[in-house]
């Protein structure tokens, strides 16, 4: 993120479908989000923008997708946060000291920060929340990815320790964290949702998911007012927010699964912001009013085809994976299908991520060579090649278009069958976390702007997000060395070598880098941006 901003994205990280009970019922059912009674006129101070799917979980320790994280980050906070300059900034911690050569962090908490129930935040709350997420019975799929660098987390997750030994309460306002080795990206990991803090007294059983809005008590600029599954999330401004009262009164997030319905509701004034699909852009370009409200945002995110090296025997063969990579015409996908908006991905690392290179050892489109490799692997013209299940998420027409294009190109260029399978988002994430999907079209969005977040997390054998079961000893060695040193130039060199190895091994076929297109109403001002997406709406206003 899985943020994994993360807004409007897919991320990275085992979410579950949940049924939460709100404090009232909404109007409509699944498509309107409760706006039918109000008509098309917006209300000053109320920011309305849709969720393309039902929230996967509103428990910070379980959430892993960008759309849901965008809700959670309005309500819950961590010790640190992202700033508009894409650097880690103080949040619940007003400052920190780094000691012991980069292995110990001493966080000094901001005094007077209150939970939504009025109780003051103390360092013991941070430890309690982290240990809840780090308890095996709780079942977080993100704790190991983002917190395992902390001494004692792995032991806690394995049930071998009653506490996270590297997380210590020094006093009410001082919290000390010790990690296993110097890691220049560690603070970035603490911006992720599993490190958020909430009021433990609101949870009758700490090991169960947050089940009602009354249990979702954070310190953020907004608090949960209502959640009706499949319909709407409503957040109310926290007037006592430690960063100053938000300009908005409320945020309304209707669940609108159909892309055309989302666009139509923007046109009729029922929502104030909508993420677009590429098919929408030609018509918008011809409409002067809509075109004036169109904004583009480059994101540090990469869409790719994943090939599981451990499920389908044919995909274990490097030559087969290379053939697949060479048979996908990424230029055609980017220019013809996606309208030339996105940038073709010749690397796993996106622009703005530490270690990005313009020139990499990527697999070039070459049908003749692809066919030769496939024949060499024992499948001439695709004969004898097994049909491969090829999964992708629902709710995103662009994702479906690309998946279908990949399927068609592989059939046409190699004679092999990738059987497209669209899956509901929550179910997709659950299957993805099992590491058993044979092939899939997916996105990874940066959680922090470091190569470790892509190469080590996604593709090293020790990476918790390695869902393609890729293993290469030399790749692991290069990444592991780069993960634990502070010399930036040396880290770039090591990660560059590792990236070239994995691009040729082809468990990932990078397709394109993300560029968001959004319609934002002229009523909206004060949106704060980072590379990851829209930051929490502390300054957003709607007139």
What features would you highlight for this structure?
single chain; 543 residues; alpha+beta; Dipeptide-binding Protein, domain 3; 7-stranded mixed sheet; 26% helix; 20% strand; disordered N terminus
What can you see in these coordinates?
With 543 residues, this protein is α+β, with helices and mostly antiparallel strands. It has a domain at 299-515: Dipeptide-binding Protein, domain 3, CATH 3.10.105. 26% of the residues lie in helices and 20% in strands. The protein contains 16 helices and 21 strands. Strands 11, 12, 13, 14, 15, 16 and 17 form a 7-stranded mixed β-sheet that branches. Strands 1-10-9-8 form a 4-stranded mixed β-sheet, covered by helices on one side. Strands 4-5-7-6 form a 4-stranded antiparallel β-sheet, covered by helices on one side. α12 links the parallel β14 and β15. α9 (318-327) runs antiparallel to α11 (367-376).
Report a brief summary of the structure.
The protein is α+β, with helices and mostly antiparallel strands and 543 residues long. It has a domain at 299-515: Dipeptide-binding Protein, domain 3.
Q: What is the annotated CATH architecture of the domain at 299-515?
A: Roll
Regions with pLDDT < 50 over 5+ consecutive residues?
A: 1-39
How much is the average pLDDT?
Answer: 92
Figure out the total of helices: 16
CATH T-level topology of the domain at 299-515? Dipeptide-binding Protein, domain 3
Strand content: 15-25%
Which structural category fits the helices and strands? Answer: alpha+beta
- According to CATH, the homologous superfamily of the domain at 299-515 is Dipeptide-binding Protein, Domain 3
What percentage of residues falls in helices of 4 or more residues? 25-40%
Largest sheet: 7 strands, mixed
CA radius of gyration is: 23 Å
């Amino acid at each position: 993120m899985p943020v994994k901003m993360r807004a409007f994205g897919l991320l990275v990280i085992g979410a579950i479908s949940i049924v939460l009970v709100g404090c009232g019922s909404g109007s409509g059912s699944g498509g309107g989000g409760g706006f039918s009674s109000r008509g098309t006129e917006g209300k000053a101070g109320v920011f309305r923008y849709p969720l393309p799917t039902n929230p996967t979980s509103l428990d910070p320790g379980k959430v892993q997708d960008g759309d849901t994280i965008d809700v959670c980050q309005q309500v819950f906070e961590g010790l640190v946060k992202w700033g508009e300059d894409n650097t880690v900034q103080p949040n619940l911690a007003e400052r920190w000291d780094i000691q012991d050569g980069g292995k110990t962090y001493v966080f000094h908490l901001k005094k007077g920060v209150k939970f939504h129930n009025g109780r003051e935040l103390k360092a013991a709350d941070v430890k309690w929340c982290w240990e809840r997420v780090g308890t095996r019975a709780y079942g977080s799929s993100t704790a190991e990815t983002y917190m395992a660098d902390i001494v004692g987390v792995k032991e806690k997750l394995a049930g071998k320790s009653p506490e996270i030994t590297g997380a210590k309460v020094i006093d009410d306002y001082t919290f000390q964290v010790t990690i296993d080795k110097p890691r220049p990206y560690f603070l970035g990991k603490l911006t992720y949702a599993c490190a958020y803090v909430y009021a433990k007294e609101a949870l009758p059983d700490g090991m169960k998911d947050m089940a009602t809005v009354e249990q979702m008590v954070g310190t953020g600029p907004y608090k949960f007012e209502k959640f009706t599954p499949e319909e709407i999330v409503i957040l109310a401004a926290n007037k006592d927010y430690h960063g100053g009262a938000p300009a908005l009164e409320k945020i309304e997030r209707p669940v609108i699964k159909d892309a055309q319905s989302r666009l139509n509701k923007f046109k009729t004034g029922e929502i104030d912001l909508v993420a677009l699909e590429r098919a929408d852009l030609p018509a918008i370009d011809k409409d002067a009013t809509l075109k004036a409200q169109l904004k583009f945002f480059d994101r540090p995110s990469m869409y790719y085809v994943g090939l599981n090296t451990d499920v389908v025997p044919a995909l274990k063969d490097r030559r087969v994976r290379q053939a697949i990579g060479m048979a996908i015409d990424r230029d055609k996908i980017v220019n013809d299908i996606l309208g030339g908006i996105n940038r073709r991905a010749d690397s796993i690392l996106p622009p703005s991520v530490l270690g990005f290179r313009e020139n990499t050892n990527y697999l070039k489109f070459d049908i003749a060579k692809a066919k030769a490799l496939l024949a060499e692997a024992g499948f001439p013209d695709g004969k004898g090649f097994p049909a491969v299940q090829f999964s992708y998420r629902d709710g995103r027409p662009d994702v479906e278009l690309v998946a279908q294009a990949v399927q068609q190109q592989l059939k046409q260029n190699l004679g092999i069958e990738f059987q497209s399978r669209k899956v509901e988002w929550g179910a997709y994430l659950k299957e993805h976390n099992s590491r058993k999907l044979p092939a899939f079209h997916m996105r990874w969005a940066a959680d922090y702007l470091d190569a470790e977040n892509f190469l080590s997390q996604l593709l090293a054998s020790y990476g918790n997000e390695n869902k393609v079961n890729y293993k290469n000893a030399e790749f692991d060695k290069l990444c592991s060395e780069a993960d634990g040193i502070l010399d930036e130039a040396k880290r770039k060199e090591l990660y560059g070598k590792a990236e070239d190895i994995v691009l040729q091994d082809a468990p990932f076929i990078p397709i394109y880098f993300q560029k968001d297109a959004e319609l934002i109403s002229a009523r909206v001002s004060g949106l704060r941006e980072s590379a990851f997406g829209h930051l929490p709406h502390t300054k957003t206003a709607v007139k």
